[in-house]
Amino acid sequence: MTRRQPSSRPRRPRSANARHQATGRLRIIGGEYRRRLLPVIDSPGLRPTPDRVRETLFNWLQAATSGARVLDLYAGTGALGLEALSRGASEAVFIERAPDVAAALEANLATLGANGQVERLDAMHYLTHATATFDVVFVDPPFRQGLTTPACHTLESRGWLSDDAWIYVETEQELPPEVPRSWQLHREVHAGDSSGRLYRRKPSPPGDAC
Q: What is the mean pLDDT of the chain?
């Protein structure tokens, strides 16, 4: 077999933005946008919730997403918030501070024509002052950065949650979240090195700390 000789043609320099180009696809599992495939960019630490886990989660939630106001904290690809919009959520707010990731999410919302808003902010900065209450909240921060517990307690203490809100928290398996006492564990799922837990909020009596 003849070995091909290396080309003498100079190689084109790789674009500085090449690492932010779409390298994967996000599949909407159910609802209005079922089976739609959306581009996902290559960005460090971007870790979409696996299809199987999303399917399990939304089977648990069922009708809870219909007409709900949704907050997707540490949104990344927006997989959870987009799925909620597909399944009847009235609106969704996505919090994502990485400009390239946020831009890709905005493009996907436009492609779907979905009622979503992307806030390009640090999640904890966003949570400082409540501007609305949400019925369904997804908390899926980067792993091993100590972000989960502060986010959960700030959601509760700053008044972001409706009285009977659903909160889904995804963490590394070895570090289960410390959540407010008013959050009751409903279901949990484990996949790979991550665990997902769905909580239902039951407001504490007046004066009872979270």
A: 87
Q: How many CB atoms lie within 10 A of CB 210?
A: 15
The rounded distance, in Å, linking the Cα atoms of 95 and 75 is 6
Give the number of other CB atoms < 10 A from CB of residue 57.
Answer: 23
Residue type, 186: H
Report whether 152 contacts 163 (CB < 8 A): no
- Residue 46: predicted pLDDT: 77
The residue behind tokens 């009235």 is 90
The model carries a pTM of 0.85
pLDDT at 138: 99
CATH of region 50-201, choose from 3.10.180.10, 3.40.50.150, 3.40.50.300, 3.40.50.720: 3.40.50.150
Map tokens 């590394």 to a residue. Answer: 172
Decide: 54 and 66 in contact? Cβ < 8 Å. no
Pairing of strands 161-172, 194-201: antiparallel
What are the domain boundaries of the chain?
50-201
Question: Which residue type is seen at 177?
Answer: P
Which pLDDT value is given to residue 174? 82
Q: Mean pLDDT over residues 27-37, rounded?
A: 96
Q: Which DSSP symbol is given to 152? A: H
Q: Are 35 and 7 in contact (CB under 8 A)?
A: no
CA pseudo-torsion sign 54, 59, 60, 62: positive
Please give the backbone phi and psi of residue 73, each rounded to the nearest 5 degrees, phi first: -85, 140
Give the pair of three-digit tokens for residue 40.
């996902």
